Amino acid sequence: MEKIISILGSTGSIGTQSLTVCKKMGYRVKAITAHSNWKLMEEQIRQFNPEKAVLTDMEAAQKLKEAVSDTATTVLSGMDGVLEVASDPQQDTVINALMGVAGLKPTVCAIEAGNNVALANKETLVAGGKLVTELVKKKGVLLTPIDSEHSAIFQCLQGNESKSVKRLIITASGGPFYGKTRSELAGIKKEQALKHPNWSMGAKITIDSSTLMNKGLEFIEAMWLFSMPPEKIDVVVHPQSIIHSMVEYVDGSVMAQMGAPDMMIPIQYALTWPHRYESPAKHLDLLSCGDLIFKKPDTETFTCLADCIEAAKRGGLYPCVLNGANEEAVSLFLQDKIGYLDLFDAVRQALDHFDLGDYNSVEEVLEADRKAREFVRETFTR
Fold first, then answer.
1. 26: left (phi over 0), alpha (psi -120 to 50) or beta
2. What is the pTM for the complete model shown?
3. 176 and 42 in one domain?
4. What is the DSSP letter of 228?
């Protein structure tokens, strides 16, 4: 059966791989959005013929509009265009591969329109998990995970009762610096932090992986996706990235999902669940895997993971502030405006600075995010 798909963030790593999966599965791509990469989007328009294409950068959108004037694709601009695509009820699934908390409002719009959401934007649940999960239940739509770790847990839970789960075990590669001391991390430059040993990803998530912040955000995301308290979620370092996560059951059984480190596997499963089909992804060669190693995370050096767990336990707006502080810090680090250790300190100080309660609207979440970013800029770039 043909599915109608829209992709938010089509020019990024997840977005381009999602298009590959859609082509292989014969799905119709109804709309695509991105920030400013108009040249790649032009190629995507000519290959997939979407009804709408959106660039949030106004100047880039104008260039795209001129470049594809000979096509039937309508070019829109700004975040309003993204929300229009997400809100279209005449589609099956919206893939949210946007970066950062900017993905929250489009997710909410997609769900309110009755669309299923395949989620690669973890910040949606980190910052606004309560709102999103309540809305999913109200609208009766599917929220399927694209993150490899959450896809692994999702797969390991199939056919089992949630009450029989003892704990979720999220695996972490450890990034490029695991095993180093804080003093050894002091001089790290962005060029070093952007070299992940196993995965090819965008700049922001690669930096987050190097600090273990990404694993902390995934911890919070797992709480909301699987209705699991923080006490029943653990993180282990698994440098080979072969086992993507595990579920331990009360009878002592541990179910693990294994596969090559290829994001097309979780992308396709998020779109085809509960069915499986041939995939363009690499297949795992067990004989070449070697030893599979597991280690305890070093949360004294990589404090972002511990801070995420603390924010998860505090609840309310604390995960939102933690996420906003981190997003701003990573942006500043990539601009060479702060040092590598400031990434850890920005998150910790933001958590200590704010006295926060609960939230009941997207606007409250975005305001807390704004304040966290402002705090990091004022504190670390004086």
1. left
2. 0.94
3. no
4. -
d(CA 25, CA 48): 13
> Angle 170-368-77 (CA atoms, 0-180°, nearest 5)?
90
34 DSSP assignment: E
Q: Are residues 222 and 115 in the same domain?
A: no
Q: Give the CA diameter of the chain.
A: 62
Verify that 244 and 361 share a domain, yes or no: no
* Torsion sign across C-alpha atoms 269, 152, 215, 367: positive
Q: Where is the domain boundary, 145, 162, 190?
A: 145
Q: Please determine, for residue 95, whether its predicted confidence score (pLDDT) is greater than 90.
A: yes
Contacts of 299 (CB under 8 A, 6+ apart): 212, 305, 306
**CA atoms of 79 and 34, how far apart (whole Å):** 10
Contacts of 176 (CB under 8 A, 6+ apart): 192, 193, 195, 196, 197, 210
Q: pLDDT tens, 212-263? A: 999 999 999 999 999 999 999 999 999 999 999 999 999 999 999 999 989 9
Q: Are 104 and 362 in contact (CB under 8 A)?
A: yes
Q: Determine contact, residues 234/309, Cβ cutoff 8 Å.
A: no
For residues 193 and 333, membership in a common domain is answered with: no
